[in-house]
TrEMBL record:
This is Bifunctional diguanylate cyclase/phosphodiesterase. Residues 23-276 form the EAL domain. The keyword Membrane applies. The keyword Transmembrane applies. Keywords: Membrane, Transmembrane, Transmembrane helix. It comes from Marinobacter aromaticivorans. It comes from the Bacteria. The chain holds residues 403 to 683 of 686 of the full protein.
Amino acid sequence: AKQKGRDHFQFYVASIDQEIRDRKQLEKDMAQALSLNQLHLVYQPQINLETKRIIGAEALLRWDHPVRGLVPPDYFIPVAESNGSIVEIGQWVLDQACMQASRWADIGIPLRIAVNLSAVQLRREQIVDDILGTLRRHDIPAGRLELEVTETSFMTNLADAVAKLHSLNRAGISIAVDDFGTGYSSLTYLKKMPVQHLKIDKQFIRDLLINEEDTRIANTIIDLGRSLNLTVVAEGVETAEQEYYLSQRGCKLAQGYFFSKPLRPADFEKFVHEFHQKVTE
Ligand code: C2E
Ligand code: CA
Ligand code: CA
Ligand code: CA
């Protein structure tokens, strides 16, 4: 039994050791991703369910590594957050998204761009100046930018987060609470935070109309949004049934594969033109 225990122990050490090396390599690869041009953004349209028009797009980060392939952001963003590289990457994302918004305005599609802002970015002292500076550099009106923050952003220092979001908000930038209902939701945050949008997380939309609890949770978020005067956005809408239900129930905005998956800029432009043609026909 003793012998077996030792083997187990060695196996354990070896696998931890491997894990640490894998992680170090991942961090090294990520540190180079920007300079090696391995990052790009894709854009997912956000649709107004009443007017059936595209009102904006969420920018989503993609990392295409020559050997690893497409690395999912759910996997590499937490790593970038823990080693701080999210600060540089996040600024790059903001720059790219603003460049895109400016180009789209030039070709007649003045859409609002939603950018995910990490809690780590929001904690930085210069973040407000950095964001406003980026808008100015690209000559984008602040109303064209939306920042998506998660509830974790409010946790470490509520007063600090409130102050920064207020400054951004006063400048004209709108704020959305992302993944609403999945984190440490507190109605205190909603009361104190200058937010305009609530995003129903896709985990509640996936089994909408199939799972009774999920349907009730979605209903509750929609009602909460209405009573607090916040626009509700459903993410992960994949079926016509979900789209119909949400629009009847009073959810104003939606995004998901039912409309379109996140697209490269050229495909996104094509999609916008075709979508609006179809609707007006
Ligand atoms: P998120 O902000 O909640 O983004 C929504 C995710 O749902 C995206 O995954 C999107 O591609 C996916 N999605 C959209 N429509 C559907 C649908 O109909 N069905 C399903 N099953 N999924 C759908 P993605 O692109 O893999 O991003 C994952 C997460 O990574 C994001 O979740 C966000 O938290 C983070 N992320 C992505 N880009 C950035 C970024 O630039 N900065 C930061 N800080 N985080 C980012
Ligand atoms: Ca988001
Ligand atoms: Ca989400
Ligand atoms: Ca998320």
